[in-house]
């Protein structure tokens, strides 16, 4: 009886583990939500605002606050229908939407600004599993005596990177749906200080791992399943951290630049490699650490692409870079902690841990990585 209960208990935990892995990877197989970006400038009494956003999600009426994937919404079918439209077919719908959406943008520059819609640029259809970033342009007159800019980002609109253009020491900030920006001096000089910049970029780095960095999560889990013991993990995570910190810095500085269409398939292959190695290798060999270091270089380039989309403030480049990287590390350590509390703490000393938990989980991870590689090479 005890043996039967033990077997059922083991199967239940294994089912939960594999199901969790599938749930983690599901967003990456569908439609990832990315932050919108708003660039604003004031010149000769005219405010110009350009928004880069996933306009199909807005058209569908999806509440993007706290959402990592549009398939989580009941309105995802509407999103998919807009996403499949060509630029010419979608443009009149976007124009109608933008004229009404202006009213939700509470912009104050020495008084409320009456914005007008000036145009839209919609990319051609590419991979429909990836968000399409359209550009919407708005403009409005401001009083000659205006000194500050303030904007409230609408609730339900998800995350926004707000960037000031055309001045010295421009402001760069991060707003969530429903939040209001601080008062931003139109003459410039509103750039965040070192500590404020550092604090602002830590959560951005963390969110790129949890919940948005599904491929990085699976890679870290691949490192974990070789052995949930501390010593092998420390060697591997240290090599991975050192490597991706190096290329993250070089990539954001523009010293090393590799196109995402090259980096992303290689990141998928790195997931396949560490997962399959877990199946055929029983302990940590020195060459595994070297391989993990090499893969860390690739992941750092992936981080650099994301950080480049947010835009690093030139005056506080180092605090922003360090804050982002620390956020990434906290995210990775959180993944390891969850894996250890879920699996390692209970089963690491069991003789059947490798055959019944580590190998099945690694097979799932390898399968997901292989799917992503094919998708990124042949379906984009």
TrEMBL record:
Keywords, in A-Z order: Membrane, Signal, Transmembrane, Transmembrane helix
Signal listed as a keyword: yes
Domain of life: Bacteria
Signal peptide segment: 1-30
Pfam families per record: HupE_UreJ_2 (PF13795)
Segments passing through the bilayer: 209-226, 233-256, 262-280, 287-308, 320-345, 357-374
Full protein name: HupE/UreJ family protein
Species name: Ruegeria spongiae
Classification of source organism: Bacteria, Pseudomonadati, Pseudomonadota, Alphaproteobacteria, Rhodobacterales
